[in-house]
Specification:
Layout lengths: L7 H13 L4 H11 L18 H4 L17 H13 L2
Length: 89
């Protein structure tokens, strides 16, 4: 447990508010702090094609290699490109 230090006047106001709302100062301050902490996400979830905006759908497949299934990082496509480019010299 950590300790939070407040100005005595602020603490008295918080105590008055907490008593009026039948909560402890700790619970009330905790709830206030938690309002400003964004919820943790469980990870990235890729959107389905139906969830994409029309603007993004225009670019889907734009740079997709012809044999994407077995060349996820583009090594084969890069090798083919360089072979074609420099094999003509």
């Amino acid at each position: 447990m950590a300790t939070l230090t407040l100005n005595p006047k602020v603490y008295q106001e918080a105590l008055t508010y907490a008593k009026a709302h039948n909560v402890s100062v700790e619970d009330w301050v905790t709830s206030l702090i938690l309002r400003f902490i964004p919820p943790q996400q469980e990870g990235y979830k890729m959107k389905s094609m139906q969830e994409l905006s029309p603007e993004l759908l225009r670019y889907v497949g734009f740079a997709k290699p012809s044999h994407a299934e077995d060349d996820l990082n583009g090594d084969k496509a890069r090798e083919e490109y360089l072979t074609e480019k420099y094999d003509q010299l």
